[in-house]
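Appendix B, example 12.
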Amino acid sequence: QVQLVESGGGLVQPGGSLRLSCVASGFAFSNYSMSWFRQTPGKEREFVAWISGSSATKNYAESVKGRFAISRDNSKNTVYLQMNSLKFEDTANYFCIRGGGSLRGRGTQVTVSS
């Protein structure tokens, strides 16, 4: 089955850290770039980070640069998002997207609250 399944979200205090995972199945994972996006109710989805298939190139939204890190393990068909120094405004549903957007997961909720 072709799918993406995210995990690792939760409730964290400001300044805390979380590591999100997105496990891919049913396709040649290493052939695709992968992205993380986030979305809150009533708002457009927001780009967070992107990584090429070989991990050679990465790109980040300005709002997360220096705090978040995207990585992948092609042997495990998994892309990660390490989130440090979390802020209230990072609260959202985080989901991964394959390539140009042909496939996305349901997401995992991240809530930053004191």
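The radius of gyration is 13 Å. The mean pLDDT is 97.
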